[in-house]
């Protein structure tokens, strides 16, 4: 990660790519069409073990659009979104950071609006409205599950996201390097690696959002930031969604503990107590037996009937139970590590509170969540 002294004001856009040659031309065309930025910006493209000429396509397309800002391609051989982002962060030149997926088409004013809003130094992460687009009409069931695809509004109103949600989607996420510097200083390491190859495990964006909130920064949604999130045909198949839903459930088990750390300030190291009280796991063995009996039927129906929300919920909860049972041996050490992390983050927040930039208009808050005192 770059040292503080080498970073300049401006915005670095990180695009993490795995075999992205077919998707990049449109994405880069939208970046090249950004209007009147009025600040320095760059594109860092991370080639994460691609085998389809991703790097060559990126450089050719950027030159074709006149190279309106510097573009650098860096390689990351370790598969996984987390590693790709780390490589991108180690290569940036600017303080503000925007994570743009290879299928995100930013509105022409996205960069300008992001930089204006991020002048409020209390904002740690900023997100906007991601609109799903595809070559054919979206399936009838898609609207009910669009959040699983990082689409749709991230709050009811512009301002702080709710404590129930407590995350900003990674697609189009804007943050600041100061957050990463603080986390590095505190020895934070992610427990989630994100998607790797064909795996659809996820949750690293939620994890980052929660630890950023624990540092005292705000998570803010603005409808002024708009991007189109292109959906390839394969991602709109019901079978793909079920696999995606399973990946979310596998990561949600740990993320639920992170959320409790934020809302409660301390986690119970007793696995059995969590078994009885955790959301989605409450009720002990009788609840588990009911879920396995009825949820098993729902899960089978989910693979046959598109849009069955009850089946999807049961499918998700069954996977949560499986994760809880598999995690029993690791649970005490994981909770101890999270409790220690939470204490360090709150102490840091007490001595390094985020502050608005001098002269910058603060972004209004919307229903701020109660946070345990440092």
Outline the secondary-structure elements.
Elements: E1 8-17, H1 24-32, E2 41-47, H2 54-64, E3 71-75, H3 81-89, E4 94-99, E5 104-106, H4 110-117, E6 123-133, E7 159-160, E8 174-176, H5 177-185, H6 204-214, E9 218-230, H7 238-264, H8 271-277, H9 284-302, H10 309-326, H11 331-351
Parallel strand pairs: 1-2, 1-4, 2-3, 6-9
Antiparallel strand pairs: 4-8, 5-9, 6-8, 7-9
Structure characterization notes:
The protein has 374 residues and is an alpha/beta fold. The protein has helices at 24-32, 54-64, 81-89, 110-117, 177-185, 204-214, 238-264, 271-277, 284-302, 309-326, 331-351; strands at residues 8-17, 41-47, 71-75, 94-99, 104-106, 123-133, 159-160, 174-176, 218-230. The chain has two domains: 10-235, Spore Coat Polysaccharide Biosynthesis Protein SpsA, Chain A (Alpha-Beta Complex), CATH 3.90.550; 253-338, no CATH class. Strands 1, 2, 3, 4, 5, 6, 7, 8 and 9 form a nine-stranded mixed β-sheet that branches. Helix 1 links the parallel strand 1 (8-17) and strand 2 (41-47). The longest helix is centred in the last third of the chain and has 27 residues, at 238-264. The radius of gyration is 21 Å and the shape is globular.
